[in-house]
Amino acid sequence: MKVSGKKILHKNRIGGVKVGIKNYEQAIKVFNSLMKLKNSEGVLVQKQIHGKEFLLGIKKTPEFGHVIAFGIGGTKVEKVRKVAFRACSLNEKEAGLMINEIIKGKAEGIKKSIIKLCNLAKKYPSIKELDINPLIVEKEKAIIVDARIFFD
Known about the structure:
With 152 residues, this protein is of the alpha+beta class.
């Protein structure tokens, strides 16, 4: 379960993510505690997914237009600070090189996600910022677990 609210940017920092909920009674207790957090507007319930955690994001810059970021994500993002950046006019080969700056091995799910995100920025130029963290990769499947988006 995760707290939800327009003014909440870092759920983990405020104790807004609870895992391992096993029954109805625990769910009710956790729901009530999450609703008491400052700026809470609701609670999101989702299946817990296991895999490697990454971040994927877009930011509009005056110099380069939309720039995409890929790096180590989850709760380690601020400790590790391992991120690669590219202008969004990249192809599959460049996306692969970007990924190899961060991890080694096959990453087709991530590559597809990078290309799709750049295409999204082209289709919706009013996207100011988009953050996906974590993007959980399990085998060759990439799953968005949490995201936020801002428009001009």
